[in-house]
Specification:
mainly alpha
């Protein structure tokens, strides 16, 4: 699916569309979870493909440079051959052959500077492309390392998230707080009931009860003393 989108819309537009698709499904890259790792992996694969394409282009440039260089060297050798032929023909007194060979050498000599410039330009292009390819390869290796670090970090984040979820599910602190609140509420209720009982009690009735208890205690003590004294066993009339 993704490859088809990239093929139809290009790498950049394809990645954008896939990113929007992920966002629409509630999986934004900004969440930093597994989706972010998957998007990073997809981007890394795209970079690898780009580097491979660049390497293929550099190989084509190198091949073209080699052909241009070979052609230039052939022309140089060809010019040198015509010059030797002209010298040989002149020694042998063949003026016409000498002139023909020298004219061919001159014709080649005229185009050599242009060919040499083209070869030099091709060499510069190839050198620049090789440098770029090396830089991109180094960047790709760095991104591969970052990708592995990202995966490790995502695993750690997932583990921390699981720990946090366990802590939140247990909610020990909240339960402890609720227990303390309940305890305080019961204690306050007890104090309130005690205060209410004290307020609702009639002070006069309490005093009367205390007096009656004191009178009863005195009578009990007197009777007990009469039991100890035989002379006072007769009950009062």
């Amino acid at each position: 699916m993704k490859k088809a989108v990239y093929w139809l819309m290009g790498d950049k537009a394809g990645r954008t569309l896939v990113g929007v698709w992920n966002w629409l499904w509630g999986m934004p890259v900004e969440a930093g979870g597994q989706v972010a790792v998957e998007v990073a992996e997809e981007s890394l694969r795209s970079m690898q493909e780009s580097v491979q394409k660049l390497a293929a282009a550099v190989s084509t440039q190198v091949a073209a440079y080699q052909r241009a260089k070979t052609k230039y060297e052939e022309k140089v050798r060809e010019m040198q051959t015509f010059e030797r032929q002209a010298m040989t023909a002149q020694r042998n007194g063949n003026e016409e052959a000498a002139r023909l060979a020298m004219s061919k050498a001159i014709q080649i000599e005229k185009i050599l500077p242009q060919l040499e410039t083209q070869v030099q330009q091709a060499e510069q292009y190839v050198s620049a492309s090789k440098d770029k390819l090396n830089r991109e390869r180094m960047k790709l290796e760095a991104y591969k390392t970052d990708m592995q670090n990202m995966k490790d970090m995502a695993e750690i984040n997932a583990a921390l998230g699981a720990i946090s979820k366990v802590n939140n599910d247990l909610n020990i602190d909240s339960a402890r707080s609720q227990f303390e609140q309940a305890k305080s509420a019961v204690e306050r209720r007890n104090l309130q009931q005690q205060a209410l009982a004290e307020i609702s009690e009639n002070p006069q009735e309490k005093l009367q009860a205390e007096l009656e208890n004191m009178t009863l205690d005195d009578e009990v003590n007197r009777r007990l003393q009469m039991l100890d004294n035989p002379q006072n066993k007769q009950l009062p009339s």
